[in-house]
Structure prediction request, 216 residues.
Amino acid sequence: MLLRWRFRLLQRHRHGRLVLEEVAGRPFLVLPDVFNPKLFRTGEFLARSLNAELVPPGSVVLDMGTGSGVGAVFAARWARRVVAVDINPEAVRCARINALLNRVEERVEVREGDLFAPVRGERFDVVLFNPPFFRGQPHGALEQALWSHDVAERFAAGLRPHLVPGGHAVVLLSSDGDVSGFLRAFEDHGFALWTVAERNLGNEVVWAYKVEDGEG
Prediction:
């Protein structure tokens, strides 16, 4: 509850206007009501965490909850093809703009929908996910990037059918959010996890976890 009021009183108004941000040296236009990767810092952490080991050259990548498109744009440095999805239609528009702005539009396709619904029947080498960390009911499109009742369980349940054999996910988690709930959901569905990047931001710690099929 405290986090929700802090967001509404101190940060919500900063998402009500169009801004141009620089993320890891690249420009990103952030539309109103789209998750700002600089304000919350996890988007930039994801961008700086990706490398040719996590995104193998020539791979096909799914960027789940793409927001402004940060994960998709940086994954396109190595990937042959990136599909970016978001439930927020403004985020879909924003990610398309940023793919154009960063000249990766030939490799990045953006779709609207909830979790794996827009990619039903497709499989990927890598799935990136910077999820809503907090348990609770979102109010409005922007808050869907921060709060959810069941995203951990639904993502873990849907991940395996969307990975090629030997594929993996890269999932960001924050000490401010429900880390134990996400880890438990992955373990309950037979996934193995380990930390591939960590950063102390002062008031929170963020981690990038590599998630692989532990049953294979």
